[in-house]
Amino acid sequence: MRFIKFFFIVFTLCFLQSCSQTSLYQSKHYVFGTIVDISIYGESDKKAEEATQAVLKEFTRLHNSLHAWKKSDLTDLNESIAKNKSYRNASAELIEIIKEVKLLEHASGHLFNPAIGELIDYWGFHQDEFNPIHPDQSKIKILVERNPSLDQVRISGSTISSTNPHVKIDLGGYAKGYALDRASKILRDYHIKNALINIGGNIIAIGQHGNKPWHVGIQDPRGSQAIAKLDLLDGWAIGTSGDYQRYFMNDGVRYCHVIHPFTGFPVQDVYSVTVLIEPAQNAGALSDVLSKPLFIGKREDRRAIAEKLNIRHYLIIEDKVISATQTMADRIQFLDVPSQKKNHLEITR
What we know:
By secondary structure, the protein is α+β, with helices and mostly antiparallel strands. It has helices at about 45-65, 75-80, 90-105, 115-120, 135-145, 175-190, 285-290, 290-295, 300-310, 325-330, 340; strands at about 10-15, 25-30, 35-40, 155, 160, 195-200, 200-205, 215-220, 225-230, 235-240, 245-250, 255, 270-275, 315-320, 320-325, 330-335, 345-349. The chain has a 9-stranded mixed β-sheet. A 4-stranded antiparallel β-sheet has the order 1-8-9-16.
Protein backbone atom coordinates (compact mmCIF):
# COMPACT_ATOMS: atom_id res chain seq x y z
CA MET A 1 0.00 0.00 0.00
CA ARG A 2 1.25 3.46 -0.81
CA PHE A 3 1.21 5.81 2.13
CA ILE A 4 1.02 9.58 1.83
CA LYS A 5 4.01 11.50 3.11
CA PHE A 6 3.44 13.69 6.17
CA PHE A 7 0.04 14.92 7.30
CA PHE A 8 -2.16 16.77 5.03
CA ILE A 9 -5.84 17.35 5.60
CA VAL A 10 -7.14 17.21 2.10
CA PHE A 11 -9.35 20.03 0.97
CA THR A 12 -10.41 20.53 -2.63
CA LEU A 13 -10.08 24.09 -3.85
CA CYS A 14 -13.17 24.99 -5.84
CA PHE A 15 -13.42 28.00 -8.13
CA LEU A 16 -16.77 28.85 -9.65
CA GLN A 17 -15.07 31.29 -11.99
CA SER A 18 -12.70 30.04 -14.67
CA CYS A 19 -9.16 29.55 -13.40
CA SER A 20 -7.84 30.62 -16.78
CA GLN A 21 -8.59 34.29 -16.09
CA THR A 22 -5.46 36.37 -16.48
CA SER A 23 -6.15 38.19 -13.18
CA LEU A 24 -5.78 34.96 -11.21
CA TYR A 25 -2.20 34.01 -10.34
CA GLN A 26 -1.67 30.49 -9.00
CA SER A 27 1.50 28.89 -7.72
CA LYS A 28 1.97 25.35 -6.42
CA HIS A 29 4.95 24.15 -4.42
CA TYR A 30 5.98 21.32 -2.10
CA VAL A 31 6.74 22.48 1.45
CA PHE A 32 5.99 20.98 4.91
CA GLY A 33 5.84 17.62 3.20
CA THR A 34 2.70 18.61 1.32
CA ILE A 35 1.36 20.71 -1.53
CA VAL A 36 1.19 24.46 -0.97
CA ASP A 37 -1.16 26.36 -3.27
CA ILE A 38 -1.13 30.16 -3.32
CA SER A 39 -3.79 31.94 -5.39
CA ILE A 40 -3.74 35.72 -5.83
CA TYR A 41 -6.48 37.59 -7.63
CA GLY A 42 -6.43 41.02 -9.27
CA GLU A 43 -2.68 41.75 -9.20
CA SER A 44 0.01 41.82 -11.86
CA ASP A 45 1.97 38.62 -12.27
CA LYS A 46 5.12 40.45 -11.20
CA LYS A 47 3.65 41.65 -7.92
CA ALA A 48 1.98 38.30 -7.26
CA GLU A 49 5.23 36.45 -7.95
CA GLU A 50 7.23 38.69 -5.60
CA ALA A 51 4.72 38.23 -2.81
CA THR A 52 4.54 34.48 -3.39
CA GLN A 53 8.31 34.10 -3.27
CA ALA A 54 8.38 35.98 0.04
CA VAL A 55 5.77 33.58 1.44
CA LEU A 56 7.63 30.50 0.18
CA LYS A 57 10.87 31.75 1.68
CA GLU A 58 9.10 32.06 5.02
CA PHE A 59 7.58 28.58 4.68
CA THR A 60 11.00 27.09 4.04
CA ARG A 61 12.41 28.87 7.09
CA LEU A 62 9.59 27.57 9.29
CA HIS A 63 9.95 24.06 7.89
CA ASN A 64 13.65 24.08 8.76
CA SER A 65 13.02 25.55 12.21
CA LEU A 66 10.04 23.49 13.41
CA HIS A 67 10.57 20.06 11.85
CA ALA A 68 9.82 17.33 14.38
CA TRP A 69 12.44 14.74 13.41
CA LYS A 70 14.87 16.22 10.89
CA LYS A 71 17.56 18.58 12.14
CA SER A 72 15.90 21.82 13.28
CA ASP A 73 15.66 24.21 16.21
CA LEU A 74 12.89 22.00 17.56
CA THR A 75 14.94 18.79 17.41
CA ASP A 76 17.81 20.63 19.13
CA LEU A 77 15.41 21.64 21.90
CA ASN A 78 14.11 18.08 22.24
CA GLU A 79 17.63 16.69 22.44
CA SER A 80 18.44 19.08 25.28
CA ILE A 81 15.28 18.10 27.15
CA ALA A 82 16.07 14.38 26.73
CA LYS A 83 19.50 14.99 28.28
CA ASN A 84 18.01 16.99 31.20
CA LYS A 85 19.82 20.05 29.91
CA SER A 86 18.58 23.59 29.42
CA TYR A 87 18.19 24.83 25.88
CA ARG A 88 19.79 28.26 25.81
CA ASN A 89 19.50 31.16 23.39
CA ALA A 90 16.17 30.01 22.02
CA SER A 91 14.71 32.36 19.44
CA ALA A 92 11.97 34.75 20.52
CA GLU A 93 9.71 33.09 17.95
CA LEU A 94 10.22 29.58 19.34
CA ILE A 95 9.56 30.82 22.85
CA GLU A 96 6.31 32.50 21.81
CA ILE A 97 5.22 29.35 19.95
CA ILE A 98 5.89 27.19 23.02
CA LYS A 99 3.93 29.62 25.17
CA GLU A 100 0.96 29.59 22.78
CA VAL A 101 0.77 25.82 22.36
CA LYS A 102 1.19 25.41 26.11
CA LEU A 103 -1.92 27.55 26.67
CA LEU A 104 -3.83 25.63 23.99
CA GLU A 105 -2.87 22.29 25.52
CA HIS A 106 -4.12 23.40 28.91
CA ALA A 107 -7.34 24.87 27.49
CA SER A 108 -8.08 21.61 25.66
CA GLY A 109 -7.81 19.54 28.82
CA HIS A 110 -4.59 18.09 27.36
CA LEU A 111 -6.42 16.43 24.45
CA PHE A 112 -4.20 18.56 22.22
CA ASN A 113 -0.77 17.67 23.57
CA PRO A 114 2.31 18.59 21.50
CA ALA A 115 4.61 16.96 24.09
CA ILE A 116 3.82 13.34 23.09
CA GLY A 117 6.48 13.08 20.41
CA GLU A 118 7.75 9.81 21.91
CA LEU A 119 4.35 8.21 21.28
CA ILE A 120 4.13 9.62 17.76
CA ASP A 121 7.62 8.32 17.06
CA TYR A 122 6.74 4.89 18.46
CA TRP A 123 3.82 4.56 16.05
CA GLY A 124 6.14 5.34 13.14
CA PHE A 125 4.86 8.77 12.21
CA HIS A 126 8.23 10.48 12.61
CA GLN A 127 9.27 9.38 9.15
CA ASP A 128 8.27 10.05 5.58
CA GLU A 129 6.73 6.64 4.92
CA PHE A 130 4.71 4.61 7.38
CA ASN A 131 5.29 0.92 8.00
CA PRO A 132 2.63 -1.16 9.76
CA ILE A 133 3.54 -2.17 13.32
CA HIS A 134 2.05 -4.58 15.80
CA PRO A 135 1.48 -2.38 18.87
CA ASP A 136 3.12 -3.49 22.11
CA GLN A 137 0.58 -2.59 24.80
CA SER A 138 3.14 -2.73 27.60
CA LYS A 139 5.45 -0.32 25.75
CA ILE A 140 2.56 2.04 25.03
CA LYS A 141 1.53 1.91 28.71
CA ILE A 142 5.05 2.95 29.72
CA LEU A 143 5.05 5.86 27.25
CA VAL A 144 1.67 7.09 28.53
CA GLU A 145 2.71 6.77 32.18
CA ARG A 146 5.67 9.05 31.51
CA ASN A 147 2.96 11.72 31.30
CA PRO A 148 4.70 14.26 29.05
CA SER A 149 3.08 17.68 28.96
CA LEU A 150 4.05 21.23 28.12
CA ASP A 151 3.02 22.04 31.69
CA GLN A 152 6.44 20.57 32.53
CA VAL A 153 8.25 23.03 30.26
CA ARG A 154 9.86 26.06 31.88
CA ILE A 155 10.85 29.29 30.12
CA SER A 156 13.24 31.80 31.66
CA GLY A 157 14.37 34.57 29.39
CA SER A 158 15.74 32.82 26.31
CA THR A 159 16.23 29.49 28.09
CA ILE A 160 13.82 26.54 27.81
CA SER A 161 13.96 23.50 30.09
CA SER A 162 11.71 20.68 31.24
CA THR A 163 11.19 18.83 34.50
CA ASN A 164 10.32 15.73 32.46
CA PRO A 165 13.02 14.36 30.11
CA HIS A 166 10.31 12.45 28.21
CA VAL A 167 8.78 15.62 26.83
CA LYS A 168 9.34 15.49 23.08
CA ILE A 169 7.66 18.39 21.33
CA ASP A 170 5.94 17.76 18.01
CA LEU A 171 4.28 20.78 16.40
CA GLY A 172 2.71 18.84 13.54
CA GLY A 173 -0.75 19.89 14.71
CA TYR A 174 0.17 23.56 14.85
CA ALA A 175 2.95 24.50 12.44
CA LYS A 176 0.97 24.62 9.19
CA GLY A 177 -1.69 26.79 10.79
CA TYR A 178 0.97 29.09 12.18
CA ALA A 179 2.49 29.28 8.70
CA LEU A 180 -0.90 30.37 7.34
CA ASP A 181 -0.93 33.31 9.74
CA ARG A 182 2.60 34.27 8.75
CA ALA A 183 1.72 34.02 5.06
CA SER A 184 -1.41 36.12 5.51
CA LYS A 185 0.62 38.86 7.18
CA ILE A 186 3.25 38.81 4.43
CA LEU A 187 0.66 39.09 1.65
CA ARG A 188 -1.13 41.91 3.41
CA ASP A 189 2.24 43.67 3.89
CA TYR A 190 2.62 43.40 0.11
CA HIS A 191 -0.82 45.07 -0.17
CA ILE A 192 -2.34 41.96 -1.71
CA LYS A 193 -6.09 42.43 -1.35
CA ASN A 194 -7.38 39.05 -2.57
CA ALA A 195 -5.67 35.70 -2.02
CA LEU A 196 -6.20 32.15 -0.87
CA ILE A 197 -3.41 30.22 0.88
CA ASN A 198 -3.74 26.46 1.06
CA ILE A 199 -1.15 24.37 2.93
CA GLY A 200 -2.22 20.82 2.27
CA GLY A 201 -5.81 21.66 3.19
CA ASN A 202 -5.24 24.22 5.94
CA ILE A 203 -6.67 27.28 4.23
CA ILE A 204 -7.00 30.99 4.97
CA ALA A 205 -8.69 33.63 2.82
CA ILE A 206 -7.81 37.23 2.07
CA GLY A 207 -10.51 39.28 0.34
CA GLN A 208 -12.38 37.37 -2.34
CA HIS A 209 -12.15 35.95 -5.85
CA GLY A 210 -13.45 38.63 -8.19
CA ASN A 211 -17.00 39.55 -7.26
CA LYS A 212 -17.59 36.35 -5.28
CA PRO A 213 -16.11 34.80 -2.13
CA TRP A 214 -13.44 32.15 -2.31
CA HIS A 215 -14.97 28.68 -2.46
CA VAL A 216 -13.44 25.59 -0.84
CA GLY A 217 -14.55 22.00 -0.71
CA ILE A 218 -14.45 19.67 2.29
CA GLN A 219 -12.86 16.34 1.41
CA ASP A 220 -14.89 13.16 1.57
CA PRO A 221 -12.76 11.07 3.99
CA ARG A 222 -13.85 7.87 2.30
CA GLY A 223 -13.85 9.10 -1.28
CA SER A 224 -11.74 10.95 -3.80
CA GLN A 225 -13.80 14.12 -4.11
CA ALA A 226 -15.38 16.85 -2.01
CA ILE A 227 -18.35 15.92 0.15
CA ALA A 228 -19.40 19.56 0.70
CA LYS A 229 -18.40 23.10 -0.17
CA LEU A 230 -18.62 26.52 1.44
CA ASP A 231 -17.63 30.14 1.02
CA LEU A 232 -14.49 31.21 2.85
CA LEU A 233 -14.70 34.90 3.67
CA ASP A 234 -11.96 37.46 4.25
CA GLY A 235 -9.83 36.51 7.26
CA TRP A 236 -11.58 33.19 7.89
CA ALA A 237 -9.60 29.95 8.12
CA ILE A 238 -10.56 26.31 7.87
CA GLY A 239 -8.78 23.14 8.88
CA THR A 240 -9.38 19.42 9.29
CA SER A 241 -8.03 16.49 11.23
CA GLY A 242 -8.61 13.21 9.41
CA ASP A 243 -7.71 9.53 9.47
CA TYR A 244 -7.33 9.20 5.71
CA GLN A 245 -3.90 10.57 4.79
CA ARG A 246 -1.28 9.73 7.42
CA TYR A 247 -2.16 6.20 8.44
CA PHE A 248 -1.35 2.53 7.98
CA MET A 249 -3.46 -0.62 7.91
CA ASN A 250 -2.65 -3.69 9.98
CA ASP A 251 -4.87 -6.78 10.20
CA GLY A 252 -7.74 -4.78 8.76
CA VAL A 253 -7.42 -2.02 11.38
CA ARG A 254 -6.70 1.59 10.43
CA TYR A 255 -4.12 3.34 12.60
CA CYS A 256 -3.97 7.09 11.91
CA HIS A 257 -1.47 9.68 13.06
CA VAL A 258 -3.80 11.33 15.60
CA ILE A 259 -2.76 9.76 18.91
CA HIS A 260 -4.93 9.91 22.03
CA PRO A 261 -2.53 11.17 24.73
CA PHE A 262 -4.40 9.35 27.51
CA THR A 263 -4.52 5.90 25.87
CA GLY A 264 -1.45 6.11 23.65
CA PHE A 265 -3.37 4.64 20.71
CA PRO A 266 -4.45 6.25 17.44
CA VAL A 267 -8.03 7.50 17.49
CA GLN A 268 -10.44 5.23 15.64
CA ASP A 269 -14.02 5.49 14.36
CA VAL A 270 -13.78 9.25 13.65
CA TYR A 271 -13.12 9.91 9.96
CA SER A 272 -12.61 13.68 9.99
CA VAL A 273 -13.26 16.86 11.96
CA THR A 274 -13.42 20.21 10.20
CA VAL A 275 -13.43 23.54 12.03
CA LEU A 276 -14.15 26.95 10.59
CA ILE A 277 -12.48 29.82 12.43
CA GLU A 278 -13.56 33.46 12.40
CA PRO A 279 -11.02 36.22 11.67
CA ALA A 280 -8.35 36.57 14.35
CA GLN A 281 -4.63 37.24 14.48
CA ASN A 282 -4.05 33.49 14.97
CA ALA A 283 -6.99 32.15 12.95
CA GLY A 284 -4.71 29.87 10.94
CA ALA A 285 -3.10 28.34 14.02
CA LEU A 286 -6.51 27.83 15.64
CA SER A 287 -7.84 26.13 12.51
CA ASP A 288 -4.97 23.66 12.77
CA VAL A 289 -5.17 23.03 16.51
CA LEU A 290 -8.85 23.08 17.43
CA SER A 291 -9.92 20.15 15.28
CA LYS A 292 -7.76 17.84 17.43
CA PRO A 293 -9.65 18.01 20.75
CA LEU A 294 -12.93 17.32 18.95
CA PHE A 295 -11.32 14.44 17.03
CA ILE A 296 -9.84 12.89 20.17
CA GLY A 297 -12.52 13.65 22.77
CA LYS A 298 -15.50 11.45 23.59
CA ARG A 299 -18.63 11.89 21.51
CA GLU A 300 -20.65 12.91 24.56
CA ASP A 301 -18.06 15.55 25.50
CA ARG A 302 -17.91 17.35 22.15
CA ARG A 303 -20.37 20.08 22.99
CA ALA A 304 -18.53 20.92 26.22
CA ILE A 305 -15.16 20.84 24.43
CA ALA A 306 -16.45 23.16 21.71
CA GLU A 307 -17.93 25.59 24.22
CA LYS A 308 -14.74 25.67 26.29
CA LEU A 309 -12.58 26.33 23.24
CA ASN A 310 -15.10 28.69 21.61
CA ILE A 311 -15.46 26.49 18.53
CA ARG A 312 -18.68 27.72 16.94
CA HIS A 313 -18.45 26.05 13.54
CA TYR A 314 -17.53 22.39 13.14
CA LEU A 315 -18.35 19.35 11.02
CA ILE A 316 -17.59 15.79 12.18
CA ILE A 317 -17.80 12.81 9.84
CA GLU A 318 -18.11 9.31 11.25
CA ASP A 319 -19.48 6.03 9.96
CA LYS A 320 -23.08 6.75 8.85
CA VAL A 321 -23.25 9.98 10.89
CA ILE A 322 -22.32 13.57 10.12
CA SER A 323 -22.53 16.02 13.02
CA ALA A 324 -22.44 19.78 12.66
CA THR A 325 -23.24 22.90 14.61
CA GLN A 326 -26.19 24.81 13.23
CA THR A 327 -23.93 27.69 12.21
CA MET A 328 -21.73 25.29 10.24
CA ALA A 329 -24.70 23.54 8.63
CA ASP A 330 -26.00 26.94 7.52
CA ARG A 331 -22.72 27.69 5.73
CA ILE A 332 -22.05 24.45 3.88
CA GLN A 333 -23.64 22.87 0.85
CA PHE A 334 -23.47 19.09 0.67
CA LEU A 335 -22.65 17.62 -2.69
CA ASP A 336 -24.29 14.64 -4.34
CA VAL A 337 -21.63 12.01 -3.66
CA PRO A 338 -22.24 8.35 -2.73
CA SER A 339 -20.85 8.52 0.81
CA GLN A 340 -23.00 11.55 1.64
CA LYS A 341 -26.15 9.57 0.84
CA LYS A 342 -25.15 6.95 3.44
CA ASN A 343 -24.88 9.46 6.28
CA HIS A 344 -27.43 10.85 8.69
CA LEU A 345 -26.95 14.55 9.57
CA GLU A 346 -27.16 15.53 13.23
CA ILE A 347 -27.27 19.20 14.25
CA THR A 348 -25.60 20.21 17.49
CA ARG A 349 -27.38 23.16 19.05
